[in-house]
Design a protein that fits this description.
The complex is a heterodimer of chains A (about 350) and B (about 300). Chain A has about 350 residues and is mainly α. Helix content of chain A is about 70%, strand content about 5%. Chain A has a single domain, classed as ABC transporter involved in vitamin B12 uptake, BtuC (Orthogonal Bundle). Chain A has a two-stranded antiparallel ribbon with strand order 1-2. Classes of the chains: A mainly alpha (about 350), B mainly alpha (about 300).
């Protein structure tokens, strides 16, 4: 007989074990889907998860994709920990890219050490500005932040589209939907010759360290934890709820904006129509898979980044549609949420009925 | 001089673009009224769209395709129901996962259906289309799904206000604990409401891929699912107001085409962004009065209910 018993306290071991369980279940289910679609499951999984990172170039690509995911997820963890559902990081990334790209274009024919810091700062400010919209509407007009932040994603992508097709398009670019190339001084330096990984990774690592410090060593981190646990308790303790909502949105927006900077000033070096393959949405999964913990998020961003690379490799070698990546991402979150059941409930195997 | 028939034509096209919004919103409204917030509308719609189109192409039967799309919506919402109701997961995160998963899997299934032309969907009362100027084209010559969509808000309203099951749904949404104490099976009610929402979103998707623009395009729902979610808030959980809201949003979509045709010099991106911006403005206006929104929101919306046995 199987009996389900409620735990007195959520299990801490299981809290960190379930993400691993979720990944294993996802691989299993993914293999099953490949089988149903008529692909050899083991070969497909190999092309999806092992082949893409088998050499140095692949590993550099992995870090390249994990960088924005990690940055954004770190920012989102501030929101999610305090019960603020910012799901528009994709928009904040895009707007950050627009602002920093605009600044970089101002300096397109200049060189100087001061340009890159200004460009980076502009991206963070852009992301913050864009994140402040749902935050202010939530705090002062009681508006649902989920819907507002999401609608703003569509708006930001249309603004970007307008700019790169219209006023900001490269005058010598034969009407391609892209801007001029930024000057070398506005570019994040590439770390290794021949690879694409760039200095943006240090921004992500800095975010990890800073967020860890804020979460576990400051009063603000403690307030966030309490508010996330129970808004009533937070109110009773006299925390300034509105200020905190705006603050976590600003942090989250800044991180997403920085991810946007990395996307345009890294390997590409110009603004074009699609600055991000939905990193802002995928980072939500990364944040959960990493248990909203800075170190967990590093691992989660690497794992989820593989789904991006794997989708590309599997498409090239096995004609598996690239959207399989999203299927895997959705499944990871499904299985993670499902296995959270084990946090609160114990499954007991008792003897037979009699 | 404005051509009256042209105005009629515009109204008809506004109504046609409102159909998927009405269907999905009315479905989600029932789900939310039972206390469940399902953010997977976009995912369920896109699954319905590809299922309907694929079944139509493979079987050749429009009937099987429409029913199949609704069943596909039910099937995918079962995942959401099982997770949120049986495994007590967070509604917001689960709904997001559903949308991401749905968009991915629909594109996977749909890769063999890109570029295949759709079939003509039969319309009702075609012979009456020429009888009265202006009114006839608005009233006659539409698909059965179109008529169903415009009846649905009234049916939903009647269901919630006048039937016993409707009362039970509202009771579960407003106070699951007391409903449970009254002997109502909260889990069963919520499961049913989630699956019903899935069916309506599936139908909304099928309308898009089989009737509105009869073809399969990746990501063809294009954010309509999210606008449908916003419409539920806009309506303050009142089905009749969904009808009004859907017409406004349908109108914004259609105006965009006509302004381009007339040659109004506004960037096309601004016009495309208009529905999203208007949604935000409307949400702000509706939500500003926190007391009013609290009175009309189902009290347990988005909160899990767990009964210890």
């Amino acid at each position: 007989m199987i009996k389900i018993v409620k735990r007195d306290q959520p299990s801490r071991t299981i809290f960190f074990l379930t993400p691993v369980l979720a990944i294993i279940l996802t691989l299993f289910a993914g293999g099953l889907i490949f089988y149903v679609l008529g692909f050899k499951p083991f070969e497909a999984l190999k092309f999806f998860f092992i082949v893409p990172i088998a050499d140095m170039y692949g590993f550099s690509e992995l870090l390249l994709k994990a960088t924005p995911l990690c940055l954004i997820a770190i920012g989102l963890s501030f929101c999610f920990k305090s019960n603020n559902w910012n799901i528009g990081a994709e928009g904040q990334l895009t707007f950050g890219a627009i602002v920093s790209g605009g600044v970089a274009l101002l300096f397109y024919n200049q060189e100087g050490f001061y340009i890159l810091p200004i460009v980076i700062l502009a991206g963070a400010i852009g992301g913050m500005l864009y994140a402040s919209i749902p935050a202010i509407l939530k705090t002062y007009f009681n508006t649902n932040e989920i819907l507002v932040s999401l609608m703003l994603v569509y708006v930001s992508k249309l603004i970007l589209d307008y700019l790169v097709v219209g006023p900001w398009s490269n005058p010598e670019g034969f009407n391609f939907p892209e801007t001029r190339q930024f000057s070398e001084s506005a570019r994040l330096p590439i770390l290794f010759e021949g690879l694409r990984i760039h200095a943006g990774i240090f921004l992500a690592l800095a975010a990890v360290v800073v967020s860890w410090f804020i979460f576990y060593k400051t009063y603000l981190g403690f307030q966030m934890k309490v508010s996330g646990f129970s808004l009533k308790t937070a109110k009773y303790a006299g925390y300034k709820g509105k200020k905190m909502i705006i603050l976590v949105f600003l942090i989250s927006g800044a991180c997403a904006g920085l991810a946007g900077v990395g996307e345009i000033t890294g390997p590409i070096g110009q603004l074009h129509r699609e600055v991000s393959p939905d990193y802002g949405f995928t980072a939500i999964i990364v944040a959960f898979l990493g248990r909203l913990h800075p170190v967990g998020i590093i691992f989660a961003s690497l794992i989820v980044a593989i789904t991006y690379l794997g989708a590309e490799t599997a498409q090239i070698f096995m004609q598996i549609p690239k959207y399989t990546g999203q299927v895997f991402q959705g499944m990871i979150l499904f299985f993670l949420l499902a296995s959270d059941y084990l946090l609160f409930f114990k499954i007991k195997f008792t003897g037979s009925k009699n | 001089m404005i051509d009256i028939n042209f105005v009629g034509l515009i109204i008809t096209s506004i109504m046609a673009s409102a159909v998927p919004l009405i269907l999905a919103s009315c479905g989600e409204l029932i789900t939310e009224r039972s206390g469940v917030l399902n953010l997977g509308v976009e995912g369920m719609m896109i699954i319905g769209a590809i299922s309907g189109f694929a079944l139509m192409t493979v079987t050749g039967s429009l009937f099987i395709a429409v029913i199949g799309a609704m069943l596909a919506g039910i099937l995918i919402s079962t995942i959401f129901a099982f997770l949120t109701q049986t495994l007590i997961t967070n509604h917001v995160a689960t709904g997001l996962a559903l949308t991401i998963f749905g968009i991915g899997i629909s594109a996977m299934i749909g890769k063999n259906f890109v570029g295949i032309p759709g079939k003509e969907f039969p319309v009702l009362f075609e012979s009456l289309k020429e009888t009265i100027p202006f009114l006839s084209p608005i009233l006659f010559g539409h698909s059965i799904v179109f008529y169903f969509a415009f009846a649905l808000p009234f049916i939903t309203n009647y269901f919630l206000k006048k039937t016993k099951i409707g009362l039970i749904v509202r009771a579960v949404g407003d106070s699951p604990v007391s409903a449970s104490n009254q002997g109502i099976n909260v889990k069963l009610v919520r499961y049913s409401c989630i699956l019903y929402g899935g069916a309506m979103c599936g139908l909304a998707g099928a309308y898009l891929s089989m009737i509105y623009t009869p073809q399969w395009i990746e990501n063809m729902t294009g954010g309509r699912g999210w606008i449908a979610l916003a419409l539920v808030v806009f309506s303050t959980w009142n089905p009749i107001k969904i009808l009004i809201g859907a017409m406004i949003f349908g109108g914004l979509t259609i105006i965009q085409f006509h302004m381009q045709a007339v040659g109004v010099r506004i960037p096309v991106q601004f016009l495309t962004a208009l529905p999203y911006i208007v949604t935000i403005v409307v949400l702000v206006v509706i939500s500003r009065d926190s007391r009013k929104i609290r009175l009309s929101t189902p009290s347990s919306l988005g909160k899990s209910f767990y009964k210890d046995n």
